[in-house]
Amino acid sequence: MAENVEEYTCRPVYDIDTIDRWHSNCITLLGDAAHAMQKPYWSRGQ
User: Fold this and answer.
1) pLDDT given at position 2
2) From what superkingdom does this record's organism come (predicted)?
3) Which end of the chain has fewer CB atoms within 10 angstroms, the N or the C?
4) Among candidate residues 42, 34, 39, the one with its CA nearest the CA of residue 13
5) Three-state DSSP class for 27?
6) For residue 36, what pLDDT is reported?
7) Which residue numbers in the chain have pLDDT < 70?
8) What is the CA angle 32-27-35, rounded to 5?
C-alpha cells in the first residue's frame, strides 16, 4: 500500500497541557475534541 502513495506529508507531534474541565456553561468538549492525539509510541506498549 505504501508503494502506491504518490505524495505524503510529515507532521510534527506536539505535547500540550491537559485541561481540568471539559465544559464551560453550555459548551462541552466530547470525543477527540477533548484531548490531543496520543503519542505514536503509546500504542506499542512502551
Assistant:
1) 75
2) Bacteria
3) N
4) 39
5) strand
6) 67
7) 32-46
8) 20
Contacts of 40 (CB under 8 A, 6+ apart): 13
**Residue 5 amino acid letter:** V
CB of 39 closer than 8 Å to CB of 13? yes
Count how many residues are written for the chain.
46
In angstroms, rounded to a whole number, what is the distance separating the alpha carbons of residues 1 and 5?
7
Q: Is residue 23 within a helix (H) or strand (E), and if so which, with residue range?
A: strand 23-24
| Residues in contact with 26: Cβ distance below 8 Å, sequence separation at least 6, in sequence order | none
Q: For residue 45, count other CB atoms closer than 10 A to its CB.
A: 5
